[in-house]
Structure formats: structure tokens, C-alpha cells
Amino acid sequence: MKELFKNPELVKKFKLLHYILLSNGMTYVENDIYLGYDGYVDYYFSPFTNKGNAVPVLPDSMVDFLDKFFETLKNNVLDLLETGGDQRGRITFTYLTSNKKFTINETIFTMDFESSVGEFEIDEKELLEDMIKWREEGKTEIRIEFNGSGDSGYIDDYGYTNDNNERVNLPAVWEDKLYNILERNHGGWEINEGSEGTFTINNSEEKIELDFRMNVETETTGYEFEHQFEF
To answer: What is the pTM assigned to this prediction?
Structure first.
């Protein structure tokens, strides 16, 4: 990577870029690459500054230079990254006019979860009647899955018995009950990274058991590179 920045022509281009940015009141220019959990590389040339998109301001020749340069960096840096497995990442190319430094920074996002369990007694007459009916039918437990993220979430409107995986369609009153439990005990279960889990309707003991798993994404620093221009 260091050899790339020793090219005299590249130094000349960055010197010109430096003064173009300063003359337009821009303190930096940067571009991101995003890496998905599945290893997918999401890259689009869109140089951004403290005053917005740089493309309308920069001369066409400078836009072409940055486009090719960032593409070269992308191809070189992908083999050096630490992102992998249950992780996604963001790589940021940045040039700062304040110190004439070009940096490459990788941010790694790792998905994990925090789990909790809860039990909720049932005292609503309509729900108790359903539980008695299911119990008499031999359905001692019914499990229902839920999932939420990105400001939307859902609870399945059906469940499966734990003994023989027989499907059981849930009346609307049960859906309301389960949503109410989530909202009251885990507000925000459907936002950001979200959550997932399982409700178990325990017809024998007339209670609902909740296995709740909140998705948590932690952020760490990965690959870093810095070059100081001298001009």
C-alpha cells in the first residue's frame, strides 16, 4: 500500500486536489465501501465532503482520477481486511486538508445477542377458555416465533405444538396479547438491529413463557492505514 503513494504523479494529483478543496471551502473528501455479513461488497464512487457531493465541484479530470484511484484502493485493501464470519464492515477513504493526510479506516460491526426469559400468568377469560380447549385436545404447549428489525416486526399468527409439531392458528385476541407483552416488557423490540424469540403458550400451567433475544451490534476498529503527503 505504501508503494502506491510514492508515485510522483499521484503526489501531483493530490497537491492539485488539496488546493481545489481549499478554494471551495472543503476540509475533506471521503468515500466508503460497505461489506455485508454475507461477504457482499457494496461500493459506489460518491466522493463526499463537508459541503456535500464533491463531483459537481471538482474538474472532470479530477473526478476521473479519484474514481480510478479509489477503485485501485478498493482492490488492494479488500485482501487486508479483518472483517469476516458474523461481521459486516465499513471502509472509509479520507483525505484531510488540515494535515494533508490520507487515511484508510475499517470499522467492524459484529452481531451478537442478549437473551432473557419471562413468564406471564393468564387471567383473561377468553384466553383461558382457549387454553382449556387446547389442553383437552392434547396440545399442552404451543410455540410461536417472532422477529423484528429495521423499524418493523411481526409475530406469527400461528404456532406449533411442541410434541408433534401440529400447526395451530391463533385467534386475533392471542396476537394482541403477545404484541402487548412485547411492547410492555421489551419496548423497541422491532427497531435498529431488532430482536427475535419464541413465545410458548403453556396450556398445562395456564401461562405464557417468553424466550427473548435482543440483537446487539458492537463496533470495533480493524485495518488502518495513514499516509502523510509532503507538498
So the answer is: 0.70
